[in-house]
Write a structure and sequence with these properties.
The chain is mainly beta. The protein is built from one helix and 20 strands.
Length: about 300
């Protein structure tokens, strides 16, 4: 059958239009697939900083000065005297980084040893400049006599913070985002996640508070998980030995040779693994001292801890 010329032209245009539509459809599907695989926002990234490589022998973290550490001073209590003139309303303004105007943190020589002395007068923290992971950290601590507002009538308090990440002052404008081993009279070894981190602990519930128990149920740590029931501390004025073993996402708190808490599945508030960070010691209203602060690498938990990998 013979097709008139005007029809040949129309058929050609229709075929061209069909091919264009097919091409556009394929491009649309490809683009949609690409967008699904590569969204505009990048996937969440860990906040962890570069980690210092450690050796399997002890390395001291405290010398005759505060070299290797940085200080962060929080918001001074209204009772603190001797500060230089500042803003009219200072109640919400931290003193900030390396601005320790009252020498809250200092190194003293006692019996021939370097001792980190913390007056406690202003809330804040002293942090290692380096970040660490997979380590055994050991230190000794003892209480002084002074206490300061607003905690002058409370238990003496400080804290050892591990896996510190991000900006200073994330928690209460005083301390870093971290996992805290509580250092407080009668409570050394309690767990406090600060400013976001999460973890799981084997625990039993006593008076609505989670208490670490090796035979307890593995549950998410809420605001606090108390240490193993018992008194493992020495009298005020005597040195308490604290060991922290951290390997991957598990950490073990040991007080004077007793395993008092085991922290599992440490993670950020974005559910990213939390396995390393700076180490920070708190100033929190009480005079306290730390000495023999040292660290070494580990690749497994010591058998004597009785803790599974």
């Amino acid at each position: 059958m013979r097709i008139p010329p005007f029809l040949k032209s129309s058929i050609h245009e229709v075929r061209t239009l069909r091919r264009s539509l097919v091409t556009l459809t394929c491009l649309s599907l490809t683009l949609g697939s690409s967008l699904a695989q590569a969204p505009n926002q990048p996937p969440p990234q860990s906040e962890e900083q570069p980690v210092t490589a450690l050796q399997s022998h002890w390395r001291s973290l405290l010398g005759e000065t505060l070299g290797g550490w940085e200080t962060w001073m929080g918001v001074p209590h209204q009772s603190v005297a001797g500060l230089p003139p500042g803003p009219d309303d200072r109640k919400d303004i931290p003193l900030g980084l390396n601005n320790d105007l009252k020498q809250v943190f200092s190194v003293m020589r006692i019996d021939g040893e370097s001792v980190l002395h913390i007056t406690g007068e202003i809330f804040g923290g002293i942090s290692t400049l380096e970040s660490f992971g997979n380590y055994h950290l050991q230190l000794e601590t003892r209480w002084g006599t002074k206490k300061w507002p607003p905690r002058e009538n409370e238990k003496r308090d400080s804290g050892l913070l591990i896996h510190c990440q991000g900006e200073h002052g994330a928690f209460g404008k005083n301390w870093k985002k971290s996992v805290e081993l509580q250092v407080q009279e009668g409570d050394i070894g309690d767990l406090f996640p600060l400013a976001g981190p999460r973890a799981d602990v084997r625990q039993v519930i006593v008076n609505n508070v989670g208490v670490y128990s090796p035979s307890g149920e593995l549950l998410p740590a809420k605001q606090k998980v108390a240490h193993l029931q018992g008194n493992f501390e020495k009298a005020n004025g005597e040195w308490n030995l604290i060991d922290v073993y951290t390997l991957g996402r598990k950490s073990v708190f040991v007080v004077n040779g007793h395993v008092v808490n085991v922290i599992e599945n440490t993670r950020t508030n974005k559910d990213l693994p939390l396995v390393s960070g700076q180490i920070q010691l708190q100033s929190e209203g009480a005079e306290v001292e730390y000495r023999r602060i040292r660290i070494q690498a580990i690749t497994q938990f010591p058998k004597e801890l009785g803790v599974a990998p």
